[in-house]
Amino acid sequence: MAQIEVRDLQITYDTPKTGERFTAVEGVTLSVEAGEFVTIVGASGCGKSTLLLAVAGLVPVSGGTIAIDGRTVTAPGPDRAVVFQEASLLPWRSVLGNVKFGLEMQRWTRDDRTERAMRFIRMVGLANFADYHPHQLSGGMRQRVNIARALAVDPKVLLMDEPFGALDAQTREVMGDELLTIWEREKKTALFVTHDIDEAIFLADRVVVMGRNPGHIKEIMRVDIPRPRHEDVLDSDLFNGYRKRLRAHLAEDMASMHLVEGAQA
Amino acid sequence: MIAALAKRQALILGTLSMVGILGLWQAVVDLGFIDPFFVSRPSAVWNEFLAQWRRGNILIHVSETLRSFALALGLATTVGIGLGLLAGWFRDVESALDPFVWFKYSAPTIAFYPLFIAWLGYGTPTIVAIAFLFALTPIYANTLSGIKNVDRDLVRAARSFGARPYDIFFMVALPGSVPIIVAGLRLGVGRALTGVVVAELFGANAGLGYSIGYFAQLLQTTRMMVYIVIVIILGVILTQLLSFIEARTDAWRVSAAK
Amino acid sequence: MTATAGPRPAPPPRARWPRPSRSATISIASVAVFFLLWQIAPELGLVNGRFTSQPTLVLKAALEVAVADDFLRHARVSLTAFAVGYGLAMLVSIPLGIVLGTSRIARHMLEPPLMALYIAPTLILLPVMIVWLGIGIASKIAVAFLGAVFPIIVNTMAGMREADHKLVRMARSFGASRFDVFTRILVPGALPSIVVGLRLAIGRAVLGVIVGELYVSQAGLGFQLTTYGAAMRIDRLLVYAIAVSIFGYTMTALVRAIEARLQRWRPE
């Protein structure tokens, strides 16, 4: 049995403006093995973040099931941790305090908390910044704290919602690199949402491509690039092949999006 | 749509609660929980309001208070905006005024009331002076910060087109500060009204504050309540008026930015 | 353009140390000129010294008041009224503001009357308080309370409403209970606003006590103000007025220090 089992998932919610029922995700079936790194790509509005947050237990499911290790997901649990797109750090806590937050929520003992939090702060390279407050950190550093906070609670599954989306291209590459290093050491199952094709391929064992109206899976693509991976694979023919395939999918989506908007205008 | 609905909910619930408060007030007195001597009751206050209105007393006192209020606010606006513009534009003026403003912030104006009595005697001049000082601070402070915080990109753009300091002041700094100055006026309005009624409470021959104090001394609770309710309503109306103007000046700014 | 020296925390302006020496010099000079004029104007016959007193006379009066005018007794009376009124206001308004900030229905119901009382001059309720509570300290406490309670409620409410929903979601993702979210996300997030309310409330509570004592009392700083006003002892009147100002300033500065500490993590 796979670690994450999503079966025939449907997620709907009321649109606040019109009061109509909107289907964000429909008929999504996906299994992720323990220790696997799966990325989800798609144009904006394809429901990829909604899917991730549903696995986290933060978005209610309207149809189908999500299970982690065979247990149905109804709420957030200690087996999962989320790395949010915006770092979502508590501005009144230091880096150390923020990393300890998840441990506090999950009732780790007081001594363990500090020791464990420091370990993960060191892992993301912020040992010298433990006493800093979020506003004193750069965007990249905040995301490191965000990742350390999620890893510290020792989840089986790491859920990442475009964690590098707000960073500049260069920082983004460095962070991707470091994330892989950490992941290879920690052996967590990872589900990673992004809209960046290169990022999706570079990180993944498998790439899930999602389409819009309503959000559904178009293709699941296996990435057979040996690990550990380095930036030079970005220029390989193999990588280029994957890139082309994904681009074709997204271009299709873009075209249909423009058609729809053109029709409305 | 949802916002409009939420707004309506706020309106409905707000109205309900106001009606509820009046109902509760009436009920606790009617049912004998509280002696009407202490709080009167809404029906009695309403009847008394009508009686006072017919006798013309309401108009006399409201216009007396509004006259002092207008004088004080007018003075505070002139002086506050004038000094605020100067201090906002010339740093040295700000430095010179700063110690006094700082003192003004910490000092409860009313502590100097006996001094004004000594200088100006009981009556309108002292009332206007106190209310003027009450209203001055926020108007000055907002004008100052409006001018000082003028958008520096706009200033740079204006200068690139060869604008001189004089042009920048009148074309960029002043118009850009209008919303925050109006916000200062809104605060000033509330404080001027407070200043007038409090000073009237201490010594006057007419006005809302005077009436409240007068009927309190006679222990005529119903009449006192009539004037208290009028002051509260007046405060809300005047502040709402300024909020309306504020929203308009801001709307102009937002649409200009688009 | 020396006038636009960068953005500054909005009003109120306060002394900023250390400041550039030029502006410090000008400030000191301007105060010096003021005291000088105040000192010599009566001597030159420009104003009647009986009405304005003089800095030297005020200084002398301050010494007299300090040694033999029952200053401490009167200060204690006023301070008690302030402390009790302000303390009660804190006890009532912070929990109320928190509840109102969390519940939309409660807010919609109570906001209109609260805003009306926040705007309205609560000081005019002084005569009512005297009818209810008599002319003793209770009515002063009540007016101080009424002055302080609304700014704290309104600011606490605003602070709770501005809660960052992303932080709430983050906390939930780690399994935070409603209670955890409340104590660790909502309340800490609202703290700076609450402290702003507490600061605004100080001035209003001081004002309430002084107005109460000016209106009718047998002791207190406000009582002394009236006494010396009626006796035309401008020098002593000013000593008391300045004492009240210093008290208000000290309290406000204290809360500002707390505010600055809290806002270290929020440098805007």
Report on this structure.
The complex is a heterotrimer of chains A (265), B (258) and C (268). The C terminus of chain A is likely disordered. Chain A is 38% helix and 24% strand. Chain A is of the alpha/beta class and 265 residues long. Chain A has a domain of 145 residues: P-loop containing nucleotide triphosphate hydrolases (Rossmann fold, 3-Layer(aba) Sandwich). The termini of chain A are far apart. In chain A, strands 6-7-8-3-9-10 form a six-stranded mixed beta sheet, with helices on both faces. In chain A, helix 2 packs across helix 3. In chain A, strand 1 and strand 2 form a beta hairpin. The mean pLDDT of chain B is 87. Chain B has 258 residues and is an all-alpha fold. Chain B has a single domain, classed as MetI-like (MetI-like fold, Orthogonal Bundle). Chain C is built from eleven helices and no strands. Chain C folds into two domains: 33 residues; 199 residues, MetI-like (MetI-like fold), CATH 1.10.3720.10. In chain C, helix 6 packs across helix 7 and helix 10 packs antiparallel against helix 11. The N terminus of chain C is likely disordered. Chain C is mainly alpha-helical. Chains in contact: A-B, A-C, B-C. Chains B and C meet through helix 1, helix 5, helix 6, helix 7 and helix 9 of B and helix 1, helix 5, helix 6, helix 9 and helix 10 of C.
Question: How is the topology of this model organized?
Answer:
The complex is a heterotrimer of chains A (about 260), B (about 260) and C (about 270).
Chain A: E1 4-14, E2 21-32, E3 37-42, H1 48-56, E4 63-68, E5 71-72, E6 80-83, H2 95-105, H3 110-123, H4 139-152, E7 157-161, H5 169-186, E8 189-193, H6 197-203, E9 206-211, E10 216-222, H7 237-264
Parallel strand pairs in A: 3-8, 3-9, 6-7, 7-8
Antiparallel strand pairs in A: 1-2, 1-4, 4-5, 9-10
Helix pairs in contact in A: 2-3, 2-4, 3-4, 6-7
Chain B: H1 2-30, H2 36-39, H3 42-54, H4 57-89, H5 91-106, H6 113-120, H7 124-148, H8 152-160, H9 165-202, H10 208-217, H11 221-257
Chain C: H1 21-43, H2 49-52, H3 55-68, H4 71-102, H5 104-119, H6 126-133, H7 137-161, H8 165-173, H9 178-215, H10 221-230, H11 234-262
Helix pairs in contact in C: 3-11, 4-5, 4-7, 4-9, 4-10, 5-7, 6-7, 7-9, 8-9, 9-10, 9-11, 10-11
